[in-house]
Amino acid sequence: MNNLTSTAVIIALFVLMVFARQGELSNIEDERQANIVARQEAEAQEMEDAEARAQAYRKEAEKYKDAVDHDSDPKTITYPVVLDASKSRDPDQGDKLTFSWVQTAGEVVELSSTKGQVVTFAAPSGQYTFEVTATDDYGVSTSVAKTVKIGAEPNASPVVILEVRKGR
């Protein structure tokens, strides 16, 4: 082999090595781009999952008319309730009414009073049933029961956003 042929072979090998190296770099860049896309898709899925959990929680909370207020204090787990029978009346004019309250179901709570038109209590989430009896001056009475449903304090799951970027 002469010098010209040897030089041509060396140049050809060099060119092949350069193109091979560029192909490797191209593959590395393609892989890097694929990883970035995969991370972005994973982050989008995490956000979508977090929103789905929050939406499910809101739907569950809608089942309750009342819920413990979110106050950013996990120790506050009660909801203040007012039971008001003050619009009760007796069709016989002039008859005065007396009231008697009793809890008939649910975790026992302490009523502010068992007498009077209005009573209050504070309770954690759950279902509570109360009965009020109104009695007139002649001893005739009527009782009505009411169930109070209190939802748990709303608290959505945290959303974690993890970014990956090039360091120094």
UniProtKB/TrEMBL annotation:
Residues 28-67 form a coiled coil. Keywords: Coiled coil. Pfam families: K319L-like_PKD (PF22352). The keyword Coiled coil applies. InterPro entries: Ig-like_fold, PKD_dom_sf. This is PKD domain-containing protein. It comes from marine metagenome. The lineage of its organism: unclassified sequences, metagenomes, ecological metagenomes.
